[in-house]
Design goal:
Structural class: mainly beta
Shape: globular
Radius of gyration: 15 Å
Strand order of the largest sheet: 1-9-5-11-3-2
Number of domains: 1
Strand content: 35-45%
CATH topology: Jelly Rolls
Helix content: under 10%
CATH class: Mainly Beta
Number of strands: 11
Order of helices and strands: EHEEEEEEEEEE
CATH architecture: Sandwich
CATH superfamily: YhcH/YjgK/YiaL
């Protein structure tokens, strides 16, 4: 997981070959609360896309950790704060669902070990090894989630 300010996102351009397209997209749309609620196609073949949504937050007892294998999540809060729980997937022992390759998601009923608070101007990157529990708290939050196709790590 990476947690930082949007001003520093360019420092992470080498983590994935699709990051230059992410940076170009963010430079064009200027993440803000004014963005339209919709899906944005960033790169062909579903390698990179973004979705802007407004979601109701929830209590941790009403949420589960989620993880993905095919995509990296870059999450950006646009108008409010979003508390997000985190736990390394290696510590997730209680799978509530089987991995669904169609929707690229699995849910776990473990408790997060750590929390971050995403506010406008900051981002969090969750890799396939990161289970995360977004949308914690009261009220609603408008967010952009950029899905970036994960590539195999050649250093395994």
């Amino acid at each position: 997981m990476i947690f930082d300010t949007l001003d520093n996102l360019k420092n992470y351009s080498s983590i994935n070959p699709f990051m230059p397209q992410v940076l170009e997209f963010l430079d064009q749309v200027k993440p803000s609360a004014n963005l339209e609620l919709k899906k944005y196609e960033i790169a062909p073949s579903k390698n990179v896309y973004a979705a802007v949504s407004e979601d109701q937050k929830r209590l941790p007892d009403d949420a589960m950790l989620e993880a993905h294998q095919q995509y990296i999540d870059i999450q950006i809060a646009l108008d409010n704060k979003d508390k997000i729980g985190w736990l390394p997937i290696s510590e997730c022992k209680y799978a509530e669902t089987k991995y669904d390759p169609e929707s690229d998601i699995i849910f776990f009923s473990n408790d997060p070990s750590d929390f971050i608070t995403l506010t406008p101007g900051k981002f969090a990157i969750f890799f396939p090894g990161d289970a995360h529990m977004p949308l914690l708290g009261d009220g609603k939050v408008k967010k952009m989630i950029i899905k970036v196709r994960a590539v195999e790590n050649k250093f395994k």
